[in-house]
Structure prediction request, 718 residues.
Amino acid sequence: MHTLPVIDLRLTAAIALGKATAALSRCLRRGGGTTMPGRVARAVEPRVLGRLARRLAAGSVIVAGTNGKTTTAHLLAHIMRTLGHRPVHNRAGANLAAGLASALIEHADLWGRERGDLGIFEVDEATVPRVVPQLAPRVAVFTNLFRDQLDRYGEIDYIAGLWRSAGASLAADLTCIANADDPLVYEAVRGLPGRLVTFGIEDERHALPALEHTAEARYCYRCGTPYAYAVTYFGHMGRYHCASCGVRRPAPDLTGRDLSLAGPDGAELTLDAGPRGAVRVRTVLPGLYNVYNVLAAAAAALQLGAGLPRVAEALATFAPAFGRAERVRLGEREVQMLLVKNPAGFNEVLRTVLATGPLSVLLIAINDRIADGRDVSWLWDVDVEMLAGRVAHVVTSGLRAEDMAVRLLYAGLPAEAIEVERAYDRALGRALGHLARGRLFVLPTYTAMLAIRGVLERWGAVRGFWET
Amino acid sequence: MTLRLRICHLYPDLLNLYGDRGNIMVLVQRARWRGIDVAVDEARLGDRIDPDAADLYFIGGGEDRQQRIAAGDLVRLKRGPLEAAAEDGAVVLAVCGGYQLVGRFYRPAEGEDLPGLGLLDLWTEHPGPGARRLIGNLVIQPEGGGPPLVGFENHGGRTRLGPAARPLGRVVSGFGNNGDDGWEGAVSGRVYGTYLHGPLLPKNPEFADRLIREALSRRHPGIELAPLPDVLEARARAAVLARVTKAESG
Prediction:
């Protein structure tokens, strides 16, 4: 069937200008045009986001939360692709309204007809209330809430409040998928309209001995009493309850059991969907934090009609999003980048890279641009102490290379083990100089990751991120 | 007689918004590197404190909700001992939210005033939920000389000093106490309050040593500290200073 498009000059002009902006941006190699096309198009037609999103036959999914948005969205898109869907998603972590609009413009023709049929959008935590009325998502996934970029958002309670306030504009047939193990998330979304589906981990062998220093949710958000944790996995994720008002971690609808973590090489777990059955899954994504991403994506896929066996097959063939556990070969050696952006995530990454034994070298690149968070004080909330005596050399790079170096010094690393090299290419060179063969772990903040990827691209080791 | 630095960290799990524990880590390491014994006591909600058990008391920052929880407990259980300790020459260092709580009162954006400890003659008012937060790199020139202090600030409240408190320094770059009178922080005797975090002490080792020396001198008058290399610390401070200067001229 072929319907003649009704020409809407304003929408067509917005799309055309957006597409021209994207083409120009690619020519100038200005970062692949992941947000400018949307900005330009929105100037012509402010409703472009909603108008294009409505044309997605299978509707939209949003993924929000501090950690794991990009990986969860990529995982979900990958699963849905194997089911024959054509997902439209904002690939490069451009997760404000303009980034979403850019993705839709890229996948639309000039009449606004979308080539894709399912929107899968990672959405910045604070942008949720602004884009939800336009997108009218079918499924909203809430991964976790950590202290992150406080200079931008102020306070963590504020984000939880924003999510609650988004409730008014959510459709009643919406399904919210939420991390049961995060009391902040659960508290923020449990009152939202629609159906609530939760996911969580049940495997005490992977519990931490005590609540980490970085844990945010120490006091009940309803009554101020300290939460009692029977088990904590990382940060404030775990099995909590409040002795005073009775709030407790709900029994998850989708549970991760019998976890087997293979350090930086990946993980295995059983996805237990209760009455819908259980399946063993394998992923190259490393660490407990990625187990949560797998659970979030699987819960969303089940909600969108995927069966457990198909989810397991798709997970096994998933390759990581750039900079998130991505591995790049350099002759005899290999570089693996593990993004760090807040204390809880950084701790998990450190545990993951140390899982296979002491390291000869590590490269940590810290920037303080807006996308990284301008305030680097969070480095002092990271348990960097676990590196003392377990790594021979640490090269620090980025705009805040010196701050990271001081942090390492006070964590007990000898001054001789710490090398400061602000320039990314020289830092990579120095770190690789300490490694005859094997894998160099690079731990960058977001913009440092883009820059280091740029160096690897110039070296011919990876393609530009707009080509991936 | 062995030297022993006794630190009391107030509300480590409640007021620790901006890597505040880094201040404790720096005090501990700088003492240990010199062979000085260190004890860190943590005082939480409901704990009573002893004015003679520590020579340095530290209070960090928190979000409004945490600050409100801490304020009641501070005034009820900790005010008396802290006054006595400060009177007797102990050091008190209060940062951000803690700084606001050692003043006379804090008037938040919404809700009732929080009572303060009154250890410093100052008060803080938040101009309202819509008001601009004062955020960014902060550099100050301390009153009484010494190298500049560098850090980061992020606060909604505006602090003003009464006659009994002196400012810690003059703002070179950033907002400081309120963004308009050019002053940052407050000092009275050995009680220090400041909006500088980052945290404060890692990039300002001379200031850290001043606090250690003052705390030790309560029981060991005339104590001097052996110098430390401070190479990375100096580089980190120079990097912030270079950025701030570049931003101002550019």
Summary: Residues 56-96+108-316 of chain A form a domain with the UDP-N-acetylmuramoyl-L-alanine:D-glutamate ligase fold (CATH 3.40.1190.10). The two ends of chain A are 33 Å apart (CA to CA).
